[in-house]
Design brief:
Strand 8 and strand 9 form a beta hairpin. The chain has a domain of about 220 residues: 3-Layer(aba) Sandwich (Glycerol-3-phosphate (1)-acyltransferase), CATH 3.40.1130. The strands form two sheets. The chain has a seven-stranded mixed sheet, with helices on both faces. Strands 6-7 form a two-stranded antiparallel ribbon. It contains 14 helices and nine strands. By secondary structure, the chain is α/β, with parallel strands linked by helices.
Length: about 325
């Protein structure tokens, strides 16, 4: 982020010269620390509003915001330019709110509050999942970068479960350490994205559920339809569910207001053809998961954090060319 503020030339120099890179990383870490420090001093709802307002103004001006526009344009081709700009800003507001809510996650996830900040729902077919979680059964909980994706591990721990969260470390080690400190809680462990399937299976066998964010592009994945576009998607959640005989459970988080949410635990996803080869079953389960995510995003697109390119470049260009072509062509 600091590199974007100072320009591309500074970013290129930082990649070549370690002292400059460390300086930029330090600036970024200090800025984040100040942001989180102020957020911690505010009540959670005020912090959420302030974070959304600040990042909502800054984000659309960053070069990274082109990915937000491209992803939304491909996912929602019917949206006009004015609405697209509103959704783009909304995505950045979502990020700002999530960051500002991080110092308040303990209070937000406290289900004993009256009234609670989180409305927990169990969809048909999921009524017994919480009881099974409390009894030590492991699940693969799959969710997307919607509303507040930092909330789910806290809720699972609050409900009495143990969860291993698969995450990708920040490129800046200073901000990564700070964010991991805020995320830390008893009952939650973190496994690096490159930790390996064996480590994940071991965690599940030890009674830990697996928390996974799987709506972003995975270059190690497979082309699975997402909004009707073949997009590289990780099949790891589905493969883990099959290998460990663990239910694959989609979880949806919706923002009801500043620091207020609805979390819906859905029925486990199962292959439509249980007799198909393992690889085909994994693809089928992943396709169902993508369909679920797309449905959620269509309903609340500005809740989706999509600051990285999600769709193939050539498909994006074809859509853009089609949108700019004369009506009679």
């Amino acid at each position: 982020m600091a590199g974007e503020v100072f320009g591309k030339e500074v970013q290129r120099m930082a990649r070549r010269f370690a002292p400059l890179r460390l300086l930029l990383q330090g600036v970024e870490a200090v800025a984040l620390l100040l942001f989180l420090g102020v957020a911690a001093l505010l009540p959670e709802q005020a912090a959420s509003r302030a974070g959304a307002a600040i990042v909502g103004r800054v984000g659309p001006r960053l070069s990274k915001s082109r990915h937000v526009r491209d992803n939304l344009r491909i996912a929602l081709p019917e949206v006009d330019r004015q609405r697209l700009a509103q959704l783009e800003q909304g995505c950045w507001e979502t990020l700002g709110a999530v960051l500002a809510e991080m110092p308040h996650l303990k209070r937000i996830s406290d289900l004993s509050r009256k009234p609670p900040a989180v409305e927990l729902r169990l969809a048909p077919g999921a009524e017994e999942l919480i009881d099974r979680l409390q009894q030590g059964e492991a699940f693969v909980f799959a969710t997307a970068h919607l509303a507040n994706w930092e909330l789910l591990p806290r809720l699972l721990a609050e409900l009495g479960g143990r969860v291993a969260v698969i995450y990708t470390a920040q490129g800046n080690p200073f901000t990564d350490t700070l964010l991991q400190w805020l995320r830390s809680r008893e009952g939650i462990s973190y496994i690096g994205k490159r930790g390996g399937v064996r480590e994940l299976i071991h965690a599940a066998r030890e009674g830990q559920s697996l928390g996974m964010l799987v709506d972003l592009r995975s270059d190690e994945g497979e082309p699975i339809p997402f909004f009707g576009v073949p997009a590289m998607t990780s099949t790891v959640p589905a493969r883990l569910a099959q290998m460990g005989k663990i239910p694959l459970v989609p979880v949806r988080t919706e923002r009801l207001g500043p620091a207020r949410f609805r979390v819906t635990v859905e029925a486990p996803i199962v292959p439509r053809d249980p007799t198909a080869p393992a690889q085909e079953r994994a693809r089928d389960m992943t396709e169902q998961l993508n369909e679920r995510f797309a449905e959620w995003i269509r309903q609340r697109p500005s809740d989706w954090l999509c600051t990285k390119r999600r769709f193939p470049k050539n498909k994006k260009k074809r859509r853009e060319e089609g949108a700019s072509a004369p009506p009679n062509e």
